Task: structure prediction
Amino acid sequence: MKNIKATITALCLCAAPTIFAQQNNLPLIPQPAKVVQGDGTFTFSPTLKVWADAYDGDSIKLVLQQFEQKFTPATGTHFKYGGKSATMQLRCNKHLGNEAYTLNVTPKQIVIEAAKPAGFFYALQTLQQLLPSRNAMAGVPDSTIASWTLPAVSIADAPRFGWRGFMLDEGRHFYGKREVMKIIDMMAAYKMNRFHWHLTEDQGWRIEIKKYPKLTEVGAWRHSRTLGYGETVPDGERYGGYYTQADAREIVKYARDRFIEIVPEVDIPGHSQAAVASYPEFLACDPQNPHQVWLYQGVSADVINVSNPRAVQFANDVIDELTGIFPFSYIHLGGDECPVYKWQNNADCQKQLKELGSDNYRDLQINFYHQLQQHMAQKPQHEQRKLIFWNEVLHGNTAPLGKDITIMAWIGADAAAQDAAKRGMNTILSPQIPYYINRRQSKNVWEPRSQGWGTETVEAVYNYVPMKDVPDTLQSKYLGVQANFWTEWVEDASTVQYLTFPRLAAVAEAGWTPQSERSYTNFEQRLQAEPVFYKAAGVNYGKHVFDKNKAQ
Result:
């Protein structure tokens, strides 16, 4: 961090005039840490001579080639790889942080410096936003642009937080590989780096586990597309879907090529009725009763019988297969909204709780997780995973889990995050209000059916201040921020997109930009360039901040 600050200081001293991003019209999202505009423009010719420093596996060159795949179709400029006198140069600078970069554009040359391939990738996302049309970000030509140019500018940039995430729930509704990849593309454009994939729910199990084929033969399907709630009743349609392990590996690679790590979530032992319906003989607390994939919204009481050794082995086996699919060092095991009613009425659960010397049924859940921890601790180092939980696990005795877990704080997020940090645990801020961006963003009657009262506007999302009033002694425990999208009401990908964008851009800026450089008024101005990008990318979006007279 000292090195990036030094770079920023040097830019500010040597460049003129010194006009920072929030004071000019550069439509950059997220806003860089520091921007200094110069005089004149760089104009692209039909052929651009480029150079990339050598790096392990030619990974910097691969980043450049990936950029070229969109840039050339949009602008007509072809790359010619040449020597160090090239017009566009990507140079290694080991003094910068892993995701930091500098971008310097003069009328004659473009120079990017970074320490790691991720930094070069993010610099090129910024470069795309500096072009005269957002079409270029989607690789789409724009016939209205007579000359493709860049403004002369010097940028020194690094993210505020290392965790800049988005969660998509596919347990309730299933969207498919193409739609997930589209979300990943949009995240990459906004320099987000964690895709939290919620793959299991009461209403559906979406990932193939080869040792337990009924999870997808039975658990991935239900007898209603629409989930019952209030006056809405199940419709009887056979509905579902799942990802094969090959599908998941393809998506993992697609994301990693865009410097996004995927965090799989298998929510156990609560939110698990689809799993229980698949293997009631050892997962159910009452196997003598019928069980089916749930057809309703809300929280099912049909939780996994954590006192059954076969249920513990099942969870270990699932984790083993997930480890082989998802190479990132985290797995999310849920932990939220786990009713204890069936445990309270199960003799084996009662016996286990007594053996634990506790009268808090939440401690059965903690003990279940502790057994999974012990299983993972015996694996080779490269197969071990850190566990993430929703903040309800703090309601139990977390001592057996130790401090090496991460708490995703959603309900009472600020207080829960501080509680976790004080216990020595890492935490991620994911406040239900306003970062649950599946919630309605307007009170308009034509707003899609979803949760909330229309108060989670773009402005409300933007104006949340992460880590506000957190003591300096705890701040190192805050990994970052994350927006979540729950899909009880949302049956199609177009509505996911409509509710997600542009609110996800606001969360991205909170994760990347220093708080001192954030301003909603300026953000809203910069946001006006985004509809061109959304349309070129084939993404639906909320119109509220673009046409306030007709927000639809």
Summary: Residues 1-23 have pLDDT under 50 and may be disordered. The chain is about 35% helix and 15% strand. The longest helix spans residues 59-75. The first strand starts at residue 34 and ends at 43.
